[in-house]
Design goal:
The complex is a heterodimer of chains A (280) and B (114).
Chain A lengths: L2 H4 L1 H4 L7 E11 L4 E7 L11 E7 L5 E7 L9 E6 L7 H7 L5 E8 L13 E6 L3 H16 L3 H6 L2 E9 L6 H9 L4 E10 L13 H7 L8 E7 H13 L7 E6 L20
Parallel strand pairs in A: 7-8, 7-10, 8-9, 10-11
Antiparallel strand pairs in A: 1-2, 1-6, 2-5, 3-4, 3-6
Chain B lengths: L1 H22 L4 E3 L4 H4 L11 E4 L5 E3 L4 E5 L2 E5 L6 E7 L4 E4 L3 E5 L8
The chains are: A alpha/beta (280), B alpha+beta (114).
């Protein structure tokens, strides 16, 4: 790919967030459908937990597809990690999860978005609600919290307790399952509540339904405690959760949402089948 | 002249509305989803800027507005009254920005602590 010729038009309206060519350092399976891409990003300016990047793929004929992915890694981490869930009919995600290998290049721009972000300087309880791969930006927040509070005393932890309510279809689709268990084990001020909506392993005694108002009332702090709330997942889940939280009395301005769904257009399926990308 | 412009604006909004309803709620996203394309036009992050809807007068962070993404760009709507607040579209040679639906946009001059 010739960088100088590809987006001549974009150069004249370029903002401060530039496209960068990154190198894949590792591709780690998280679940049967999700992988974490660990990237080396030369000149990365640092990010805040909750931000995302735009990833751009280019075909031989110049056709480009662009998608947004949340950053999974903490700001304290030297490398940038993206956890990508494969959508079987997706144009971009199957390439990222199935074909990209260590040493391959990937073009992205970021970090993007200053609204859906949390850092330890935001005092008060932290309530996170995730559906499926909506866990990714919230995991960056939990990793940041763990890293930032590791050196702080118990008082700091107790002044910023965190609770995660995480809805998944089944046990083996729970992203970061082991790491979440480790985080909870080492931190009495962190609670993680899992609900499995479709299928649960034998002996499962946890929640078995979609997130509803009653579940939120049990897990969330009461509104007078003014938790900072972040909700991320598929659009229907996010909208149901945000509406229920507001009904329970939470200030809408403290409930930040990030819906995700299929974004961007995709090229009509041609006779050639799966798109070939040339990220070099 | 204003009336004519308004009429044509309403018609294109109605066309977009139909298209949005056709693609369904799955494509409704947050202001966050517009941050990338807005960064092509604005140097400061616009998702933390407060936009006042020209239709209902409510001010909200752009990140709290609703985004409908399509191949060419995004339509950003007010979650309160559903009016179009801003539109951004990209063609191979231009970026189109329509801010007629925003009475004003207030951008905080100093960056928040990193």
């Amino acid at each position: 790919m010739n960088d100088t010729s590809v987006q001549g038009a974009a150069v004249s309206v370029r903002g401060r967030i530039a496209w960068r060519v990154t190198t894949v350092v590792d591709s780690v399976p998280e679940t049967p459908r999700a992988r974490t891409l660990v990237l080396d990003v030369p000149g990365w300016p640092g990010h805040r937990a909750g931000q995302h990047v735009d990833v751009r793929l280019t075909a031989e004929d110049g056709y480009q597809a662009q998608r947004s992915y949340s950053i999974a890694s903490a700001p304290e981490s030297a490398r940038v990690a993206l956890t990508v869930e494969r959508l079987d009919d997706g144009e971009v995600s199957p390439y990222l999860t199935d074909e990209l290998r260590a040493g391959d290049r990937l073009e992205l721009r970021g970090p993007i978005g200053g609204y859906f972000v949390w850092d330890v300087a935001l005092a008060g309880p932290l309530l996170l609600v995730a559906g499926g791969s909506g866990i990714v930006p919230l995991m960056a927040m939990l990793r940041h919290r763990a890293a930032a509070l590791a050196t702080a005393g118990a008082d700091a932890r107790h002044s910023e307790p965190a609770r995660l309510l995480y809805s998944c279809r089944k046990w083996d689709e729970v992203i970061y399952r082991d790491e979440l268990a480790r985080l909870v084990e080492g931190d009495p001020t962190l609670d993680v509540t899992l609900t499995l909506t479709r299928e649960a392993p034998a002996g499962w005694t946890g929640l078995r339904r979609r997130i509803d108002r009653m579940m939120l009332a049990e897990v969330a702090w009461p509104p007078p405690e003014r938790p900072n709330v972040f909700v991320c997942g598929p659009t229907p889940l996010v909208e149901a959760v945000a509406a229920a939280l507001v009904e329970l009395g939470h200030d809408p301005a403290r409930v930040k949402t990030e819906r995700f769904g299929p974004t961007g257009g995709s090229r009509a399926q041609g006779a050639t089948g799966r798109q070939q990308w040339t990220v070099r | 002249m204003d009336g004519a412009m308004r009429a044509s604006n309403e018609r294109s909004s109605a066309d977009e509305r139909v298209a949005e309803e056709r693609v369904g709620e799955a494509l409704r996203l947050d202001g966050n989803a517009a941050a990338g394309i807005l960064s092509e036009v604005f140097a400061p992050d616009l998702t933390t800027a407060r936009a006042t809807c020209a239709n209902c007068g409510t001010a909200r962070p752009v990140g709290a507005l609703l985004v409908y993404a399509h191949g060419m760009g995004v339509v950003v709507r007010c979650p309160g009254c559903d009016a179009v607040v801003l539109r951004v579209a990209r063609t191979p040679t231009k970026v189109w920005l329509d801010l007629t639906g925003a009475r004003h946009v207030v951008i905080v001059a100093t960056a928040p602590p990193a």
